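Database export, one record per block. Field names are fixed; values are copied verbatim from the stored entry.
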Amino acid sequence: MQAKRRSVSFGLAAGAVMVLSLATALAVSARAQIADYTQRISFQISTGSTTGTYFPVGNLLAMVLSHPPGVGRCEAANACGPSGLIVSTRASQGSVANVLAVNSGTVSSGLAQTDVIALAVAGQGPFRKTGPAKQLRVIANLYGEDLHLIAAKSAKIKSVADLRGKRVSLSTDGSGTNVTARAVLTAYRLDGAVKANYDSAEKAVDLLQAGKLDALFFVGGTPVNLLQQLLDEDVAVLVPINGDGLKRLIARQPYLTVHTIPKGAYTNTPDIETVSVDALWVTDASQPDALVYGMLKALYNPANRSAIQTERLGAHFMELTSAAKDGKAPLHPGAVRFFTEAGVLKPPQKAAVPAGAAIKKS
């Protein structure tokens, strides 16, 4: 009887150990799952229309920076962003919409033109109602975009002045193109002198092909595939931005620079005078410094240069030497740290000791 009790006691003890072991294993598994979940970092980039240049640039950033488990190329040091980072892109109306979304915290980051960011920081133009974008921070200056003015051949438009009385697309209200196009019309004294259209770029191209639109403005990294189609089909031409109007435009818009779309950039197109504006990657002040620092360290890693060059658009495409170029909004602290370490920014100088000041002895 005593032996039987011992056997039962041993069985109960063994069962208790098994239950305890199982509970411990489950707890460890749960902690591992929680740890794995908390290590996942979701980061969005708000871009533009799927046929523009912001969307593919956003996809390129997502490809280079995302660091999910098991990706072989991420095993190399700083080839990808921080471990667990998942970067995704989303389409939007463009620069203005992106700045509003980033500043309000509804999206992690976005792409926007420098002239739009300058207006946002000052609370001017399309940002009058919302006020200055105080939370806006720059991650990097990514590349230069060109202003394209493209006109139907049948419209016989050879200069900006010829737009008077014509049907012209200024793009949607949430786009950077709209901001720049309005600035051009003002500089050339054509305010209210055109029949303005505010459809998307895709719709505007369709209307121009159908003979229902005479011209359209578009800001994007050269070459823009959407516009290439019109030029290939020989139904449209690129119109230069030049003359006295250009001088007034540059004087009023210091964020625009004189530029030339080179011969051959588009089919059967000579050198075209225009203006360019930089495309910036922006975020809000609350994003962690280490995250922004880690993304930039991967983005400008020489190991990723060939993949970036393959997708090259516009000028100085994701080149380190121009990445910290003045963006009219403060650099994010994580960006300041990276660009300082990379030698692009000078380290902040310590305050000089005033002449004649007493030096305390320890």
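Remark 1: The first strand starts at residue 41 and ends at 46.
Remark 2: Strands lie at 41-46, 85-90, 109-113, 136-152, 167-169, 195-197, 215-220, 236-238, 257-261, 272-284.
End of record.
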